[in-house]
Amino acid sequence: MLENLYKQGIKTPSAEEIQQITARLRVYGHIEGKNVFYWFQNHKARQRQKQKQDNMAYFNRLLHRPHPIYPSPPIYPN
């Protein structure tokens, strides 16, 4: 449920949204608003970290890919 809310665009829920989410999750057991707050905070941090790692891997692939070999230009005597 939390993952779905995150994918729908709720990245930083308001205090009211946290209360509503917490109430919906209580059917599964004991949970507090701070658990919901920290889940979103941690998830957002992990997403940023993953994006940073993905970007670094992409640029490393670009830097370390084999470069095409171009033929040398012909040398003409003067």
TrEMBL record:
<keyword id="KW-0238">DNA-binding</keyword>
<keyword id="KW-0217">Developmental protein</keyword>
<dbReference type="GO" id="GO:0003700">
    <property type="term" value="F:DNA-binding transcription factor activity"/>
</dbReference>
<keyword id="KW-0371">Homeobox</keyword>
<dbReference type="InterPro" id="IPR001356">
    <property type="entry name" value="HD"/>
</dbReference>
<keyword id="KW-0539">Nucleus</keyword>
<dbReference type="InterPro" id="IPR044555">
    <property type="entry name" value="WUSCHEL-like"/>
</dbReference>
<dbReference type="GO" id="GO:0003677">
    <property type="term" value="F:DNA binding"/>
</dbReference>
<feature type="domain" description="Homeobox">
    <location>
        <begin position="1"/>
        <end position="50"/>
    </location>
</feature>
<dbReference type="GO" id="GO:0005634">
    <property type="term" value="C:nucleus"/>
</dbReference>
<dbReference type="Pfam" id="PF00046">
    <property type="entry name" value="Homeodomain"/>
</dbReference>
<keyword id="KW-0805">Transcription regulation</keyword>
<dbReference type="GO" id="GO:0099402">
    <property type="term" value="P:plant organ development"/>
</dbReference>
<keyword id="KW-0804">Transcription</keyword>
<feature type="DNA-binding region" description="Homeobox">
    <location>
        <begin position="3"/>
        <end position="51"/>
    </location>
</feature>
<comment type="similarity">
    <text>Belongs to the WUS homeobox family.</text>
</comment>
<protein>
    <submittedName>
        <fullName>WUSCHEL-related homeobox 2-like protein</fullName>
    </submittedName>
</protein>
<dbReference type="InterPro" id="IPR009057">
    <property type="entry name" value="Homeodomain-like_sf"/>
</dbReference>
